[in-house]
Amino acid sequence: NAGVTQTPKFRVLKTGQSMTLLCAQDMNHEYMYWYRQDPGMGLRLIHYSVGEGTTAKGEVPDGYNVSRLKKQNFLLGLESAAPSQTSVYFCASRFLGSGSPLHFGNGTRLTVT
Amino acid sequence: KQEVTQIPAALSVPEGENLVLNCSFTDSAIYNLQWFRQDPGKGLTSLLLIQSSQREQTSGRLNASLDKSSGRSTLYIAASQPGDSATYLCAVSSTPLVFGKGTRLSVIA
Q1: pLDDT tens-digit profile of B61-77?
Q2: Does the bond joining A8 to the residue before it have cis omega, within 30 degrees of 0?
Q3: Which residues of A are less than 8 Å from B44 in CB distance?
């Protein structure tokens, strides 16, 4: 059981370049999330999805777009990368319901130069 | 806006000691509270989840308590081991989860 898988694990971009981070979960979870983790700032929610075809903004959505065309996949896009988007990005998922714990991927370390 | 605070930011203890990590939150209207462990360079692993109607949860040497009225939770680790060294984060589920910044624990052999 793979759980939550994030690709790629590492990436270096130049300012203005675009990229897509892929998150895949094999647990049939309804809810999926994208977070960024920065030193001193903790984990901050970028976007989330409560089901296939639906997305919503989190705390820090600017500069990012997301799509959830299939239940098992949640894509995070950076259209024009900026140095401020240098961070570690985590995807997470869980079942619907307040008793369902959150499962995390191992993260993508992104550096924008 | 929900705010979650974890004190202390870092803690170093000798092996075998019992310890308590603290988490406080500002809005008591929560669905649940979760404690996570994060090892360096890794994602977060869920340790315990306490639903809003519960007062505590236990798993092995770990015990988490929740007092919604005072906006506090504690994670108790019994007989600490060097393998417990990690960063521990709490998160409260309003809509959606709000994380604290974590407590970095070092258990010295």
Answers
A1: 999 999 999 999 999 99
A2: yes
A3: 43, 90, 92, 102, 104
